[in-house]
Amino acid sequence: MKILLLTDNEDNWSGHNRCKTIQRLLPQYHFDIYQGWSKKNWVSRVCGRYDIVHLNYMAIIHEHFSTVKTHPQRFMMTIANERSLLFGHAIQKEEVEGMMSSCAYVTSVTKKIADLYNVEYLPNGVDLNMFKEPKKVVVGYVGTEGENKNYPLLAKVCSDLGVKLLAMLYKKNQVPQEELYKYYQQMDLFIHPSKTEGCSNVILEALSMNVPVFMTKEGVWHDLKDWVTFIEPTYEGIANVIKKYKAREFIKERFNWEQIVKRYGEIYEQIVSRKDHVSPMP
Fold this sequence. Notes:
This protein is α/β, with parallel strands linked by helices and 282 residues long. It has helices spanning 15-25, 40-46, 65-70, 83-87, 93-102, 111-117, 151-161, 181-184, 201-208, 221-224, 235-243, 248-254, 257-272, and strands at 2-7, 30-35, 52-55, 75-79, 105-108, 120-121, 138-143, 164-169, 189-192, 213-215, 229-230. The strands form 2 sheets. Strands 2-1-3-4-5-6 form a 6-stranded parallel β-sheet, with helices on both faces. A 5-stranded parallel β-sheet has the order 8-7-9-10-11, with helices on both faces.
């Protein structure tokens, strides 16, 4: 199968990277990647050489309107942004909508456009082999091991979720206060899940080190409400905070290029298998 991937500009971060990723992850097909912007006549001449021409950009894409209308069985379109269709950014909206109705298949990288035009939502993704496993999340805590501070629950949640708990515990591994800043520097977030509190020095210290603080509504929380995030002193309350610092699992599940590009491959096969599809010229 021969597929022409058209992008707006070479070496940009969106359309061109999508094209290169598709090419890399579907090695069973022959891909050519070219800039489609302002190449109206060239695209109309060469489209017959390909099984599929996949449009991966929006700016002035309407210049291919007549070509798509003439060869609809060869064209697929990915709606690459919302602004073009919703605000007419660098396109002729009516012509683009005409192209969408003519193309053999249309996808959108945003759900809003997918729902509005009743097309398939297929977002951009991340190459997790390129963006390798990050360092382990470091949750910080300074205080006692007592139940009133809720430390045992914090330790259990961190253990269950597989994150590092950097805990400076009173009379256990305590260091002089003037050395504490070294520990705050290592923390990604500071969790203070106390059930009862006064004016906590450690919360103030963490904030002074620009460490995001998550705390319960105890003690002087009214004075800190614009600078901290409040949590419930429960397993779920603590876990929900930590999970947001472990977004890789979410990306792996929902925005993984390997899975997304696999779907592109299924769409290509579906287009070529249609009865009205015309074989490319030799």
